[in-house]
Every structure is written in C-alpha cells, then in structure tokens.
Write a structure and sequence with these properties.
It is a single-pass membrane protein. This is Sec translocon accessory complex subunit YajC. The protein is an alpha+beta fold and 105 residues long. 50% of the residues lie in helices and 23% in strands. Strands 1-2-3-4 form a 4-stranded antiparallel beta sheet. The chain is rod-shaped, with a radius of gyration of 27 Å.
Length: 105
C-alpha cells in the first residue's frame, strides 16, 4: 500500500510546470483583455480633458449638454443656453458622450 501511495505522489510531481504555465497564461490574458484597454482609455480621457477649449460641445457625466464658454485651470464654464452659464470641474466632463454628440469632421 505504501508503494502505491509513493508511486502516485511521484507521478503527480511533474504537474508543477504545467500549473505555472497555466497561471502565467491567465495573468497574460487578463493583462491584454482587461488592464491594457483600461489604461489606454484613461490616457485618452486625460488627453481629452487637457485639450478642452472654448467653443467645444461637451456632455457632463450627469448628462448636461453645453458649449464651453471659458476654461480656468481645473474648472470649466459651460453655456447651456443664451446667458445661462454653469461652472463645473473638468473631471465631470464625459469623453464617451462628448464624442457621440460632437459632429464628425
């Protein structure tokens, strides 16, 4: 009986390399399908927020549509209607919805 237990233990010892390869491939897949696209989107959003200028049509994350009236550091004044201006943070502007509503060039 002891010989069969030892034989089974010796046969199962070669699977460590396979497990390392499996975990490595899972981590690699997670990087390319989850982490890398998120980093790319964050870079695009940061670039979009830095390039906001007067006259741009934007949408806030709350769904407010407006035209940029002025940019002062980290804040933006949106003109929602003639004479109606709202001051918001740049980080409250949505890249995704602003791209959908802006006219194609």
């Amino acid at each position: 009986m002891i010989n069969t237990v030892l034989a089974q233990a010796a046969a199962g010892g070669g699977g460590i390399l396979g497990q390392v390869f499996l975990f490595g491939s899972i981590i690699l897949i997670m990087y390319f399908f989850m982490i890398r696209p998120q980093q790319k989107k964050q870079k695009e959003t940061k670039k979009f927020i830095e390039e906001i200028k007067k006259g741009d049509d934007v949408v806030t994350i709350g769904g407010i549509h407006g035209k940029v009236y002025s940019v002062d550091g980290d804040t933006v004044q949106l003109e929602l209607d003639r004479g109606l201006k709202v001051k918001i943070e740049k980080s409250a502007i949505s890249l995704d919805f602003s791209k959908k509503t802006s006219p194609t060039k």
